[in-house]
Amino acid sequence: MQIRFLTSLTQAPAAQWNALCGPFYPFCRHEFLHALEASGSIGDGTGWQTQHLVVYEGDELLAAMPLYLKTHSYGEYVFDWSWADAYKRHGLNYYPKLISAIPFTPCAGTRLLLSPSVDQAQLLPVIIEEIKQHLHKLGASSWHCLFPLADSSEQLISQQIPQRLGTQFHWFNRGYKTWEDFVATMTSRKRKSINKERRTVAEQGIRFSALRANEIRAEDWQLFYQFYCNTYLKRSGHTGYLTEEFFNLLRQTFAEYCLMIVAHKADEPIAAALFFIDRKTIYGRYWGCLAEYDFLHFETCYYQGIDYAIKHGLERFDGGAQGEHKIQRGFEPIRTYSNHYLVQPDFHNAIEKFLQSEKASVELYMQDAKTYLPFKCSADSRE
């Protein structure tokens, strides 16, 4: 068995890599990760350098882990700026660091891709030891596994890689057949409020189209990129992390996982949201608009996604990071996880203690958030 670190995804055959991915969670697929790299969205000058870990037995790829060398903490959604500041105050360098994550994608999923013939419990300690050695070789301060699945996070805890608890808000399809079935589970006041928001959008003369896969034309992608850049520019003063070529590559190689919701007014497109889809889940990822309209963001990014999930029998809507405004719209608080190893023992121990104390406050926050859910039944009965 040989373990190597790749500086480009082109060094791993796409068919072998994808054979480890399975039918769920599209973000680990070769096409998506390669689009980020080939488009220049990550790579030289971006603070993201590919370091993917691969495990081979002869010519057979047995395991793979998306891995990046970072010189900042942007685009991760698990915030460690205070840790970097503490290192600086002690005369130490926090950057570079290694992260196992999907760039700009705070969606939980598999972080160690495995052949069915491989036992993760046996392989994981070997991989962790290799990562620790690689940290020393690179002069990196730490390794962070962001948004792993719960069982994988627990396995990392067993290897003395402490866990950090976080919160997101996801929508769950509890057997709904129509939008009316969904809002019927809400209190009267909340149901009327949401339906009023949707009516307000319709009364502004805005209609929507849902485009899947090859229905999304090249000109739709070009227009979406304009919306994306325009919205980032207004919000952040830059045009976004993702390049136009990234979206072009999605169109060419990843379209089967894409859903684009386009908003039209007087037959002119005014906004769009890009979602990704697997067999169970719809993932809300990017959006943009030309002008602001009342409740347009909520309708385009949330209500249209819920509508689509109900109509197509999808089980869950992952709306991305943060966003307490989602609670009132039926998105429920869920736990997210990350695990963190720091080479410097004193900092490792200090952060482990901090994560334990932080966990209690996150749990309290989640319990409080559940009390604001719009449903008739109690929060506890929905778990």
H-E order: EHHEEEEHEEHEHEHHEHHEEEHEEH
CATH architecture annotation of the largest domain: 3-Layer(aba) Sandwich
Uncertain regions: pLDDT < 50 for 5+ in a row? Answer: none
How many individual β-strands? 15
The level 1 CATH classification of the largest domain is Alpha Beta
Shape: globular
Describe the main β-sheet briefly: 11 strands, mixed
State the distance separating the first and last CA atoms.
Answer: 42 Å
**Total helical segments:** 11
What is the average of the pLDDT values?
Answer: 96
Note the main attributes of this structure.
globular, 2 domains, 383 residues, four-stranded antiparallel beta sheet, eleven-stranded mixed beta sheet, Aminopeptidase, alpha+beta
3D architecture notes:
It is built from eleven helices and 15 strands. With 383 residues, the chain is an alpha+beta fold. The two termini are 42 Å apart. It has an eleven-stranded mixed sheet, with helices on both faces. A four-stranded antiparallel sheet has the order 1-3-4-7, covered by helices on one side. β3 and β4 (60-65) form a beta hairpin. α2 runs antiparallel to α9 (244-253). It folds into two domains: 2-166 and 335-370, Gcn5-related N-acetyltransferase (GNAT) (Aminopeptidase); 174-314, Aminopeptidase (3-Layer(aba) Sandwich). 38% of the residues lie in helices and 24% in strands.
